[in-house]
Amino acid sequence: TSFWSNVQKGPEDPILGVSIAFNKDTSPSKINLGVGAYRDENGKPYVLECVKKADKKIFEAGVDHEYAPIVGLASFNSLSVALALGEDCKAIKDKKIAVIQTLSGTGALRVAAEFLARFYPGKTAYVPNPTWGNHNTIFADSGVAVKSYAYYNPQNCGLNFDGMYNDINAAPNGSIILLHACAHNPTGVDPSIAQWKKISQLCKDKQHFVLFDFAYQGFASGSPEKDAEPVRLFVADGHQIGLCQSFAKNFGLYGQRIGAFSLITGTPEEALAVESQLKILVRPMYSNPPIFGARVVSTILSNKELTEQWRTEVKGMADRIIGMRESLVKYLKQHGSTKDWSHITNQIGMFCYTGLTPEQVDRLASEFHIYLTRNGRISIAGINSKNVEYLAKAIHAVTK
Ligand code: PMP
Question: What region holds the Aminotransferase class I/classII large domain (predicted)?
Answer without folding.
Answer: 29-395
